[in-house]
Amino acid sequence: MRAPRRPRGFSLVELLVATAIGGVVLTGICLVFISQAWQYQAHASRRAVQSSVRQALGFVERHVRNAGYGVDPDRAILAYDSFDAAGNAPGNGYPDGITVHARDLYFRRRATTVGTDFLQFDRELQRPLHKGEILLVLCPGAIRYAYVTVGETAPEGATTVQLDTAASPVDSPSGPPGALFHEQEQLSDACFHDTESPVVVKVERSSFYVAAFDDDGDPATPDATPYLMLHRGTDINGDGTIDGADAAPIAVGIEQLQVAYILNTLGNTPPPLVGVEDTVPWGETWHTGTPETDRPRLDDAYASPRRLGSHPANIRQVRLTLVARSTKADTQRPGDDVLTPGVEGTEGPSLPSGTTSWRQLENLGTTPAKTFDPRGGGFSRAVMREAIAPKNLLMRSQFIPIHPGGG
């Protein structure tokens, strides 16, 4: 009978080999986990970027589509090419700004007393009228009217509103309404003091531009986070001044806003395109750049020569391009480049000869401002473009709302 073998343990070599094999397996598992986690974060970042740019474009689109409702087409849209929000001035290589105006559906008052510096309403205000809000005063029949701006915030329950009598307001998307909405001198016209009181409605102003903010207080640093901003042209924070501090961020990571305009044309004539091959006139200078006799009128026929010139009242499409980037840079990748065109022909079939195609970022140029350069930096980026037709710019007469409410 064989004697039983004595139990023995593992040798040192066996332990070392087992430890090495276990270490290799655990290292592989960790590397797979880290890779999956990194890919998940990368995909989550891209989804967040795409969601941000979609929401931002949808928000801006709704406002641009309503531009000109109840407002003269010649002041429905203001264009600000390459706007430096930090300096509140035109810049070089900055995102564009755009301001649109449309009538508020829920505000209507009778003006029992009209002065060139105040309005007295027939009923109390149900909510404050902030400094900078635009009012449209319509004579009976709406043949004569005047745009005016609130000069001092009128609290809830007030019946008298002071008007802004500034001679030359700052023309900026982050400032108060400009000269186009300071027609208080016209309120001395006899129709505003007739036996039938004029009607006062409110005009909503919506300005969109891109600004950058950073924790260290320096918006010029590369790690500053860009936001799409909405400014109403009013003193929201109550400090008595209308400036960038009254704006509200509506979308994070929006790095670029580029705007171009397709103007009116007849027949087979190619439509003029402003803001691609050339720069857009700054703000109200586009409105005043043509002689008085050439500006389109509300009652002009659609085929009138005045409706075919280079004037914002003749805009038939607004082309918006937005770029969103991730809020944090990824040090393991160079980052997306949405400015430099790729190899010719990779964008799809070529367009017919003489056709002006979409540019990568319209008229941004090749040297964007450092904070808003849509290239590299380790950021994921998404681009969305849309052409919007603001139908209300075809309006040919003013009107007085018939709803009995007052807002």
From TrEMBL:
<feature type="transmembrane region" description="Helical">
    <location>
        <begin position="12"/>
        <end position="38"/>
    </location>
</feature>
<feature type="compositionally biased region" description="Basic and acidic residues">
    <location>
        <begin position="327"/>
        <end position="336"/>
    </location>
</feature>
<keyword id="KW-0472">Membrane</keyword>
<keyword id="KW-0812">Transmembrane</keyword>
<dbReference type="Pfam" id="PF07963">
    <property type="entry name" value="N_methyl"/>
</dbReference>
<keyword id="KW-1133">Transmembrane helix</keyword>
<feature type="region of interest" description="Disordered">
    <location>
        <begin position="327"/>
        <end position="358"/>
    </location>
</feature>
<protein>
    <submittedName>
        <fullName>Prepilin-type N-terminal cleavage/methylation domain-containing protein</fullName>
    </submittedName>
</protein>
<dbReference type="InterPro" id="IPR012902">
    <property type="entry name" value="N_methyl_site"/>
</dbReference>
